[in-house]
Amino acid sequence: MNQKNVVTVSHVSFSYDGVPVLEDVSFTIRERSFISIVGPNAGGKTTLLKLMLGLLQPSRGTIEVLGMHPAKARTRIGYMPQQVQLDLQFPVSVLDVVLMGRMGSGMRFGPYSGRDKAIALDSLRRLEMQDLKDRPFMALSGGQRQRVLIARALACEPEMLLLDEPTANVDMVVETELFELLHEMSKTITVVVVSHDLGFVSHYVESVVCVNRRVMVHPTTAVTGEVIRDLYLSDVCMVRHHRRD
Description:
The structure is a single chain. This protein has a single domain, classed as Rossmann fold (3-Layer(aba) Sandwich). Helices cover 29% and strands 25% of the residues. It has helices at 45-52, 70-73, 94-99, 114-126, 142-154, 172-185, 198-201, 225-232, and strands at 5-16, 19-30, 34-38, 60-65, 77-80, 160-164, 190-194, 207-212, 214-219. The strands form 2 sheets. A 6-stranded mixed β-sheet has the order 5-6-7-3-8-9, with helices on both faces. Strands 2-1-4 form a 3-stranded antiparallel β-sheet, covered by helices on one side. It starts with a strand and ends in a 13-residue tail after the last helix.
């Protein structure tokens, strides 16, 4: 069965204060795929995510997400930013954090509904965190917090997840566990992950979107040492060429 495109980026350019960040970028992302955006620091990865969310507007070109302007599609996207502003001293539970993901789903002022709580609990279940729903968020380990924040992104019942460095500051075991979970989720929704670790993510994703001012999209098996050198302008660890089924 043919998969439709959920993201179409056509000849997009973007600059900050006249300094080019992205130039003539074109690519598509299919539904129910697992894609990684990779590249050097300041190469434009986070900027590309913000353009896909409609938080920034391209200086040239067009972006279509879920068949519409990115800003209109935002309520159908689960987003986890790289820097999450949460006061770890604030007495909030794991379930409270995940319920924050329901606030963009047409919720009005007042208490959360039973449906909101059921969806939040199901999101925690998918991240294998349901048993910790009443634990203070500040009491969790770094890896557990990342799972809860991904669950928060899932709580809006998205058609696509955009996750900016979801495994930052976690150890290899936790990183592996999280990518296993995300790989499983990609069977039902589109998952796009920004990562700095091309060698690691290639074991899980179908394609890599290589960003360094310009963009090239490669199937995992087509990423060679030459591609990596062109992207990072130096030799880095090699990608694994086999993919998970």
